[in-house]
Amino acid sequence: MFRGVSGLGLEVWQPDFTGSPDSIYNSAHELVALQSFRTVLTTGGYNFLQPDLRFATDAHLHRKLYRHIIFSYQRKRLELESREAGGLAERNKMTNPNTYHIKTLAHRSDSATAFMRLCDQAMFRNAVAESGTRRFRRERDRVVPHTPEESQIAPRIPKKVTVDWIDPEYFNSLTVRTRAKFVKSKIALPLPEHITNWATLRQIDQMPYDQFMELFGNAVCSLYNFPSAEEIAQL
Questions:
Q1: Phi and psi of 141, rounded to 5°?
Q2: How far apart, in whole angstroms, are the C-alpha atoms of residue 97 and residue 101?
Q3: 171 burial class (0-12, 13-18, 19+ CB within 10 angstroms)?
Q4: Over pLDDT 90: what percentage of the chain?
Q5: Which among 116, 120, 136, 118 has a CA at the least distance from the CA of 128?
Q6: What is the per-residue pLDDT across 175-205, written as a single tens digit (0 to 9) for each?
Q7: Helices 87-94 and 74-83 meet at what angle, rounded to 10?
Q8: What highest taxon heads this organism's lineage (predicted)?
Q9: Which of helix, strand or coil describes residue 112?
Q10: How many CA atoms does the CB half-sphere of 9 hold within 13 Å?
């Protein structure tokens, strides 16, 4: 193939994926690629793949396959990378069967999300520590995509969660009847900036609840618009 490239006066084999397949430039690249392919195929270079040699001289088929790979598959890869740097690598990662593509939940608070991310990290470390043992079961890598994607799951509040599981803005848009269910709710987590490592969370968890509320909880509680006693009485 290198001899064919130099014979046409080209420095490298580099077709124009976005150009016309029938341009002189791309036609030259196609000629070199297909001639090289047929030479290797008919001389046994691909025998390890067990090719069906009945199609070894089917020039029409070879051309269709070549143009599909170059001007469809490769062109789409180039367009994806051009639109967003790293997009191709991100898509490859997301289509990996060992990867779990984390989606966002608009109705879940940033504090709850930050806590779950810490749980994901702990699960990954535990999986690495147990790899190679009889108990090991490979967990899918849980990653946040380059471009966040919102879950299509209906925004339903789980039962028996504290109010700070819910995004404050979402909570404040709910009806009085729904918000009234959380009037006596406790606060479980601090603001997201305090949810960065397990050591800090363990210290917070060991605090008396009154101390936790004074240092962290009241700031969280102030984000939520709870209905007044008068509003509840009118239900």
A1: -65, 125
A2: 10
A3: buried
A4: 31
A5: 136
A6: 999 999 999 999 999 999 999 898 888 999 9
A7: 110
A8: Eukaryota
A9: helix
A10: 2
